[in-house]
Amino acid sequence: MPIPYSYSLRNLWTRKLTTALTVAGMALVVFVFATVMMLAEGLKVTLVQTGSYDNAVVIRRSSQTEVQSGVERAHAAIIEARPEVAFGENGERLASKEMVVLVAMPKRGSDSPVNVIVRGVSQTGLKLRPQVKLAAGRMFRPGASEIVVGKSIAERFNGAQIGGTLRFGLRDWTVAGVMDAGNSGFDSEIWGDVEQLMQAFRRPVFSSVIVKLNDPENFASFKQAVESDPRLTVDAKRESIFYAEQSEMLSRFISILGIVLSVIFAIGATIGAMITMYTSVANRTTEIGTLRALGFRRQNILRAFLLESLFLGIIGGIVGLGFASLMQFLSISTMNWQTFAELAFSFKLNAAIVFKSLLFALIMGFAGGFLPAARAARMNIVDALRAA
Amino acid sequence: MYLLKLVFRNALRHKLRTGLTLLGIVVAILAFGLLRTVVNAWYAGAESTSAARLITRNAISLVFQLPLTYQEKIRKIPGVAGVSHANWFGGVYISAKNFFPQFAIEASSYLDLYPEYILPDEERKAFLLDRKGAIIGKKLADQFGWKVGDVVPLRGTIFPGNWSFTIRGIYHGAEQKTDTSQFFFHWYYLNETLKRTIPRRANYVGVYIVGITHPEHAAEVSQEIDNTFKNSLAETLTETEKAFQLSFVEMTEAILVAIQIVSFVIIVIIMAVMANTMAMTARERAAEYATLKALGFAPPFLAKLIFGESLAIAVLGGAVGIACTFPVANAFGNAMGALFKVFYVSWQTVATQLAAALLVGAIAAILPTWRASRVKIADGLRNIG
Known about the structure:
The complex is a heterodimer of chains A (388) and B (385).
Chain A: H1 5-14, H2 16-50, E1 55-60, H3 73-80, E2 95-106, E3 113-121, H4 125-128, E4 133-137, E5 146-150, H5 151-156, E6 165-168, E7 171-180, E8 189-193, H6 194-201, E9 208-212, H7 219-228, E10 234-238, H8 239-246, H9 248-283, H10 285-293, H11 298-326, E11 331-336, E12 341-346, H12 351-378, H13 381-386
Parallel strand pairs in A: 3-8, 5-7
Antiparallel strand pairs in A: 1-9, 1-10, 2-3, 2-9, 4-7, 5-8, 6-7, 11-12
Chain B: H1 2-11, H2 15-47, E1 53-58, E2 66-67, H3 70-75, E3 80-88, E4 102-105, H4 107-113, E5 117-118, H5 121-129, E6 133-137, H6 138-144, E7 151-155, E8 162-173, E9 183-186, H7 187-197, E10 204-205, E11 207-212, H8 218-228, E12 236-240, H9 241-251, H10 253-284, H11 286-294, H12 299-336, H13 347-374, H14 377-382
Parallel strand pairs in B: 4-9, 6-8
Antiparallel strand pairs in B: 1-11, 1-12, 2-10, 3-4, 3-11, 5-8, 6-9, 7-8
Helix pairs in contact in B: 1-12, 2-9, 2-10, 2-12, 2-13, 10-13, 12-13
C-alpha cells in the first residue's frame, strides 16, 4: 500500500515558512520563464499578423529594410505590370508603391525621441492589408496633408489623436483617423498619401513595391522574373518572410536572454528546493524509520518525498503562471535593431507556454527532490529509529 | 574570539546544506554581476563620450542626411573649434551575423576630434594617403584576425555595391572604455563612388561632429547651429555627444529595464533560498538557543550568532561569485564579439555585488533572530526540532 498523498501535502503545511520561501523562489523562476516566452510569442504573433503569405515585397537588391531601399518610378511600373500581380475589382493592379521613412518623435511623458515609421501608401495599400481596419475617424484623403496613425502610436505620442497635428517634412499633418491593424506591426506606423509624403521629404524614389499575387504559388516565378530582369536591381520576398526576418535579431535576443536567465534561475530555485527537502528528510529520520517498520517499502518512501518536492514545484509553477498571466495586460515597445524603428508588442500566453512552464516547475521540483528522497529511501530501519 | 569560532563551527555543522546555499549564492552573485555588466556595456557608448564634442544631425531622423555645404557654415559659428563629418555605412562582411559599425569619415579632421583613438604616426600617414584605406579598432582586429595590409570586402546595404578596403592601421583606445570595435574609411571614397553611381545621393553627410572650444557653452553653440538652419529643407538637431549616444540607449530602454529588473529578481530569489536555510537552521537549534538563554546569554548574543553565520555564508559565497565574474565576463564578452563595444567588469559592479551579498546575508537573518530572541526558555528546551 502506498503512503497517502495527504502525508506529503500535510508535511508542506507543517513547515509553512520554509514552504512559502521555497515556493516563492520557484514561482519567481517560473514567472520569469513564462514572461520571456510570452514576450517571444507576442513578438511572433505581431509579425505573423503583419505580413501575409500571398503578398510579395520588392526592395532594392541587398538592402535589408524598406528604409534603406530605393525603387525608381520607372522600375516600380515594370514590377507592377508583371502578369503574376492580381487585379482588383475595378481592374486596377493590386500593387502599392510605398515610401517608408523614419521620423524621430518624443514619446508621451518623456523627452527622448524614438524613431517612428512613416509609410506613404498608394490607394491600393489598404486592400493589400485586409487586417488593417479603421478604429476611429476616416482614411486620409489623397492629395491632402492628412495621415492615419496606428493605435499604438495614438496611445503613446502627443498630438497623435484624431484632429491633432504632427509636424515633419516642413508641414503639419492632420490626424484623420486611427487604424487598428489587429496587433500587427502596422499598429506602430503612421500612414499617409505616398505622393504627398514624397513631396514633403523630397524623395524622388519609392522605398518598396508591395504586390498581391494572383496565386500565392506564383511567387517563385514572380521572384525569378523581377530578379533576373536586366532593367531592375531588386530583391523580392514573401511579405510574411520579410517581416519575420526583420525582427530575427530581436526575437533571437529575447530567446537567448530567456534561456540563459531561466537556466541560472532554475539552478538557484532547485538548490532551494534541495535544501528544503534534505532538511525535511533529516528532521523526519525517526518518522521514516517508523514508516519503514510499519511495513512501507523503500519505493513508497521515495515516492512520498518525491511527491512532496513535486508539490512544491507545481504550487510554485501555478503561482508563477498566475502572476505571469497578469502581464498580458501590458504591452511593451522597443526599438527593433534591424529596422531602427519602434515596434510595440504584447505578452501572449498560450497553452503551450502554460504546459512548458508547469513542466519546467515539475522538473525543478524533481531535480531538487530526487537526491533527498533517495537518501530517505536508503535509510536503515534500525539506525533511523535510533536517530532521535 | 570564541564568538567567531562558534559562528564558523555552526556554519559548518550541516556541510551539505551550507555547501548548497554557498553554491546558490555564487551562481546568483555571478549572474547579477554579469547582468550589471551587460547593462553597463549598453551605456558604454555614452560613457566614452567627450563633453567637448557636439553631434549635428537631421532633425527628422538619422535616416535623413545633411548637405555637405553645412560644414563651412557650422565652422563659422563662434565657439566651434573644428568640424568633421561621418556617414554610417552599414555594410555586411560576408554575412549579416558579422556585424560591426562602419563609418565613412573625413579622416584627418575626425581623428583630430577623437584623440582617444591612438594610432601610430606612420599608420595614420598611410591611411591618409590611401583613398581606399581603412583603420580599425584593436578589438575588431582581434575578432576577425585582421592585420595591416589585409583587404576587407563589404557588401553595401545603404550604399549599394561591393566595396573593398585595405587596412592601413589599427588604433588602440586611450582608456578601457574607449570603443575599439569600429571600422573607419574615407568619406571621399564613398562620395566619389556615389557621384558616379547615384549622383543625387552624393555630397550628403550623415552627421557633423563639432568640436567646441568651451564645453560649458555646449547648449548655446547647439542652439546657434540649429537656428542657422531653421526653416531650411534640412533642419538640424544638435546635441552633446553624450545625449546623442544616450538617445540610442533610450530607444531600447524597455529591454534594458527588463534586464535590470531581472538582475534584482535574482537577488530576491537567492534571498528566499538563504532565508530558508537560516529559518531551518534556527528552527533546529531552538533547544540550543533556549539553553544559551538559560545560561544567561542575552538576545543580542543570539542575534550576533545568527547574523554572523548568515553573513559569513553570504560573504563567502559573494566573494567566490565576484572572483568568478571576471573570467566569465571575459569569455562572454569574447563570445558576443562586436555586439558590445566594450565589455568589462567595473568596480561599481563589484561593489554592488558585495552589497547585494551583504544584504542577502542580513535579511536572511532577521526572521530567525526575531524568533530566537522570542523563544521562551521552557518552550525551547522542550522543542525536539
